[in-house]
Amino acid sequence: MHPDGERILFTGEQIQARVAGLGAEISSDYKDKELLVIGILKGAIIFLSDLVRSITVPLYYDFMAVSSYGSSTESSGVVRILKDLNQSIENCHVLIVEDIVDTGLTLNYLVENLKSRGPASLKVCTLLDKPSRRKVPVKIDYNGFTVPDEFLVGYGLDYNGRYRNFPYIMVLSRRVYEGGN
Ligand code: PRP
User: Fold this and answer.
1) Which residues does ligand 1 sit against, CB inside 6 Å?
2) CB of 157 within 8 A of CB of 168?
3) Strand arrangement, sheet containing 35-41
4) Active-site residue numbers?
5) pLDDT tens digit string along 61-98?
6) Domain architecture of the chain: domains with CATH
7) With the CA atoms of 138, 142, 148 and 150 taken in that order, what torsion angle do they form, in degrees rounded to the nearest 10?
């Protein structure tokens, strides 16, 4: 494990096994349908790239980037679209893919926004769910792992942009984000 980590929460093998399970479940639920998978930049791309390779129904994928609301406006849940989809989602079976659902503010905004565009269906898949931090209720259709309220990095999750490329997920040591490093 990287020295900035306190402990490994999920090994690469555990993640790959769970992602394969999610892919099988999604493939079965969308049998005879075509999927539009929407990844939310940047955290979700590692998960998305493994997940789509475990899905056997025909699919397209596209990406959105949204601004995080920032600590001062966190409770308002104001989210800004930095990069929108390249295509219409009208009459498409849409699956939003996230790396983590924390307060739920980002996902809540995205679901409402995408719903208004007239998809045939809209579901949510997240690798990690941290329900202890929730501020607004969100419906998650596919969840990889429920996690405790700890600072997690790796497999797409970052601290100041770092650690996203790790194949495992680790708990970041307090000394890294509480200064000292
Ligand atoms: C993370 C994550 C979700 C969001 C979840 O993104 O990818 O989009 O935060 O938090 P919430 O449930 O409290 O809204 P972040 O803003 O860190 O951007 P990134 O994916 O580019 O790292």
Assistant:
1) 40-43, 68, 98-107, 158
2) no
3) 81-83, 59-66, 35-41, 93-101, 121-129, 142-146
4) 102
5) 999 999 976 655 555 678 899 999 999 999 999 999 99
6) 12-149 (3.40.50.2020)
7) -90
